[in-house]
């Protein structure tokens, strides 16, 4: 099983001062060429504040992120799931997991970011700023990932080695959709009027983090869509098998 999360815009600053980024050590190594190109472009455009603000869609409040982008190759690193912060990652609360649960988390949780693509929870990364809708010297991030995945997607997804549970937001799913037959996008929704459903909204991120934490702490090893539905029944999640279509299935969250 591989659970894929979106990155967060907010990140913990700092890390292990004795370690810096090693692109060749990152998981899913077939992405190394696009990673190297995006790092070079991100560092280059960050040399001047105004062009960088435009590229990253930031105001002056984001200048600290831009300055840190200049030092991506020399900044201290930390594991990806410790680097990302915010509501989703606070709800997952990896730091409070037991050693056994942390090992399980490192083996089964990944993040798909604009800069690194698919990485595992334990991969060591520096602080940076780049979003799925950023625009770099060689074009939009979306276009560059689409082109890159055209040649390496088979290798990337084969390394996932199991059922893929995609919890990414729409923008990040668009960078590299999970191929049909190897996994599913789990949409967190809430009941609407007259039986309709709508996006979960405000509670979406916290619900995702809690769901992933429950997957880890319950020892789940999902190998199929049927396993996901069965686990949901056991844990009190309404994963609606009748909603499945086009690689998506609904998880209905009530009371939000």
Number of helices: 10
Cα distance spanning the termini: 28 Å
The largest sheet, given as strand count, sense and whether it forms a barrel, is: 8 strands, mixed
Please bin the fraction of helical residues.
Answer: 25-40%
Judged by helices, strands and strand pairing, the structural class is alpha/beta
Strand-residue proportion:
15-25%
Per the principal axes of the C-alpha atoms, what is the gross shape?
Answer: globular
Radius of gyration: 18 Å
Short description:
38% of the residues lie in helices and 19% in strands. It has helices at 32-45, 49-56, 63-69, 80-83, 87-92, 99-108, 141-160, 170-173, 204-217, 225-235; strands at residues 2-5, 78-79, 109-113, 117-120, 124-125, 135-136, 139-140, 164-166, 183-191, 197-199, 238-245, 248-252. The relative contact order is 0.17.
Kindly describe this structure:
With 256 residues, this protein is an alpha/beta fold. The protein has one domain (2-252). The protein has helices at residues 32-45, 49-56, 63-69, 80-83, 87-92, 99-108, 141-160, 170-173, 204-217, 225-235; strands spanning 2-5, 78-79, 109-113, 117-120, 124-125, 135-136, 139-140, 164-166, 183-191, 197-199, 238-245, 248-252. The strands form three sheets. Strands 1, 3, 4, 8, 9, 10, 11 and 12 form an eight-stranded mixed beta sheet that branches. Strands 2-5 form a two-stranded antiparallel ribbon. It has a two-stranded antiparallel ribbon with strand order 6-7. 39% of the residues are buried. The mean pLDDT is 96.
Topology summary:
Blueprint: E1 2-5, H1 32-45, H2 49-56, H3 63-69, E2 78-79, H4 80-83, H5 87-92, H6 99-108, E3 109-113, E4 117-120, E5 124-125, E6 135-136, E7 139-140, H7 141-160, E8 164-166, H8 170-173, E9 183-191, E10 197-199, H9 204-217, H10 225-235, E11 238-245, E12 248-252
Parallel strand pairs: 1-3, 1-8, 8-9, 9-12
Antiparallel strand pairs: 2-5, 3-4, 6-7, 9-10, 11-12
